[in-house]
Amino acid sequence: MFEIVQFIFLILSIFGMWGIFRKCGEKSWKALIPFYRTYILSKCADKKDEGRVLLILDLFNNILSFSVSAINIKLSNVSAISYRIIVILSLIVSISTILYTIKIYSALCVLFKQNKWWSALMMLEIPIYFFWGVMNRFQPTSTIQEREVRAASLSEYEEKESNEGLTINIKSRTVSSLTKGKKVLLRDIHMHIPQGRMVMLLGGSGAGKTTFLNAITGFEKADATVLLNGRDVYKDFESLKYEIGFVPQQDLIRYNDTVEKTISDSADLRLPLSISKQEEKKKINEVMDIFGLKAVCQNLVGKQSGGQKKRISIASEFISNPYLFILDEPDSGLDGVLARNLMERLHAISRTGRIVIVITHSPDRVKDLFDDVIILAKDAERTGRLVFYGSIDDANTFFNTDKLEEMVRMINRKEEGGEGLADELIEKFGGLRNE
Ligand SMILES: Nc1ncnc2c1ncn2[C@@H]1O[C@H](COP(=O)(O)OP(=O)(O)OP(=O)(O)O)[C@@H](O)[C@H]1O
């Protein structure tokens, strides 16, 4: 009885794959080739790498199962320790096979806009995808050819190098680990930010905002070219370090020092050694003036309000007078009035010809102070991608809303309370750029 059910499932799975391959632009007859058809299925689900690993795992699985059987029926004599090693290896390969199969089946569910939980049935060898293959109402979100064309057009787009402003051409930023393999954190982010722009960086949690900032400052290098006024940030890092200011989210200031000492210590660290004491003093005064700290310069940092502490942190970083000034959520923990006051000061800095890039989670209350917006989102592969870069007005048109928070909600995944439109909008923006 069990064998009959298994046989029926096998026939259904072949028919299902036959239809899926046809819908995804592959040759249907490949569904007849055992093992290889699973690889083709992974290709349809845009999980080719996982499919390749699965083929290798299948090969190992068969070799190991054969060895265990041979030992069990005493065809070959091995020591107890070797037998144990073979069994443990078998176990590892089986678990890996299960994990990779889940990845492929889940991606198949996403491809056919179905709940990922259907992959649980597939793991039990129930070929639910039979229906997706044979019924017309189930269509994949993209074919293999469409994805290839899209990938080629995206990676072909490059921002022209410029001797002015910030030119960013990030092909990818990847990390690798033994357990999780290669993970692409960012892909295909290209833009040119002219001098004197105040730019907002938006995106849901984990979209890659900090990774993106680290890549453009050269703090964590990507496969990229980043030019600041025509100079390569990765190659000329030493000479450009005074030109780039980065204010992290967490304040890194000592509470027991006075405000003036904090800024003066920072000046010692950040200003070139060639600068005279008199000049240094002048710069410290200028910066305290810009950030409204003169009146409290002799007070202890620890006694200042949240807004003042934030301004002290920012002033300490701004002392080197950077051309590119980047701030990671400078308004976190500040009320509306203080946040606006801080953004107005940053806006004034941008009007002196510098580029200011700010991550904020409350964009709508200060959007009139910004020129442009960069919006990042995780695509279906959970890779950070560019959804939009341009003026706030153009963003309103592109997203058909004038609320920046609404734009972020649109690109966030459904399980995060969003509308899950990231992939669609990434493609739309890529298409506009290639026109
Ligand atoms: N060195 C790393 N190794 C592995 N994964 C990483 C590494 N750095 C970042 N990530 C992953 O990359 C993704 C993007 O992280 P990132 O911190 O850039 O997001 P974010 O947009 O700044 O998020 P948030 O707004 O929550 O701070 C996350 O899934 C994170 O786990």
TrEMBL record:
SMART domains in UniProt: AAA
This protein's GO CC annotations: membrane
Record key words, sorted: ATP-binding, Membrane, Nucleotide-binding, Transmembrane, Transmembrane helix, Transport
Domain of life, per lineage: Bacteria
Protein's organism: Bullifex porci
PANTHER family: ABC TRANSPORTER G FAMILY MEMBER 28 (PTHR48041), PROTEIN SCARLET (PTHR48041:SF139)
Subcellular location: Membrane
Its membrane topology: Multi-pass membrane protein
InterPro entries found in the cross-reference section: AAA+_ATPase, ABC_transporter-like_ATP-bd, ABCG_transporters, P-loop_NTPase
The ABC transporter domain, residue ranges: 170-408
Chief location of this protein within or outside the cell: membrane
UniProt GO molecular function: ATP binding; ATP hydrolysis activity; ATPase-coupled transmembrane transporter activity
Membrane-spanning residues: 6-21, 81-105, 117-135
Name of the protein in its database record: ABC transporter ATP-binding protein
